[in-house]
Specification:
Helix content: over 70%
Strand content: under 5%
Radius of gyration: 17 Å
Number of strands: 0
Shape: elongated
Pfam families: DUF7667
Number of helices: 3
InterPro entries: DUF7667
Length: 75
Amino acid sequence: MLAVHQRMAELWTLRRARELTRAEQDELLLCMEANASYVWNRLKLENLSLCASLTSDYDWLHEICERIEKLEPKH
């Protein structure tokens, strides 16, 4: 889970208990934008990895897998 996902969940939970401040609303929108960007980038790379696999281009597949790993949070 990315930090942005945790913060988005916190803000969503707060929103259920009370109205968010303007700053919190803005932050929630930023989190949602960051999430959308992450998801689309991840999906693009997963589709490219499928293409690389189907064409047996293992050098390209390895490169794509490295890019996917870089998207993931470090533990």
